[in-house]
Design a protein that fits this description.
The chain is of the alpha+beta class. It contains two helices and five strands; from the N terminus they run E-H-H-E-E-E-E. The protein has one domain.
Length: about 80
Amino acid sequence: MKFELTKHAKKVLAEREIPLEWMERTLVEPELRQPDPDDAAVERRFRRIPEFGNRVLRVAINTAVEPNRVVSVFFDRQMKGKL
């Protein structure tokens, strides 16, 4: 899958020390996909990360552009126990 990272996504990956491989795994093999309620061009992808205590990583991606653009990446506390 081809994608690019926004400046914000690069910044939060570094600040939160989230390995790029975890983000890529979430993009390619999400356990759950949801449309963003505020932006029809953005899709939220979720995946549990076993290496990080099964916490749920959320990757927001703009699918309206090519290559797709990663907007944000973070561990979503609200998804705990929902996957």
